[in-house]
């Protein structure tokens, strides 16, 4: 009897894994370090609950024509992650970048999901790091796109791309578009170009 019960539990678990659920799909950028990653690493104080779940910045996909509202892009419209939208007077720790150089962009996942693409946007030269992120502050076209056509990326995954020409403090928005849900993951990274 116990063996039959054990086999039934294993079969049910296998069915659950085979069908998959989007709730287990999460990730964030570690290179350049995202705001959520910096919070989880305790490099920034007063982060709220994002420090315990940096992988959970998930919101509607379709950016930039859809997706999170202006001023709430970095939190993906999650009020419990609103600390990510706070520009903190432009004092978020920033990764050093070299204008026009090649760079490895890295995502880390707590679970991997079927993927449409990864897209990387950068702020315009007129960007004001003391204000919450808006679409008007970002270039409308990604400077790097990696298409996956529904396949699952490795964990972690790295995309090599060329950085745009910029000077001073900027922000890179990485968007991970999920293939079989209506959502995407949003990852904001503060950077400074020398």
UniProtKB/TrEMBL annotation:
Name of the protein this chain belongs to: Chitin-binding protein
Domain of life of the native organism: Bacteria
Acetylation is among the record's keywords: no
Gene3D superfamilies registered for this protein in UniProt: chitin-binding protein cbp21
Listed InterPro entries: Cellulose/chitin-bd_N, GlcNAc_Chitin_IntDeg, Ig_E-set
Signal peptide stretch: 1-25
Organism from which the protein derives: Actinoallomurus bryophytorum
Family matches, as PANTHER family: CHITIN-BINDING TYPE-4 DOMAIN-CONTAINING PROTEIN, GLCNAC-BINDING PROTEIN A
Keyword vocabulary terms for this entry: Signal
Domain Chitin-binding type-4: 26-191
A Pfam family hit: LPMO_10
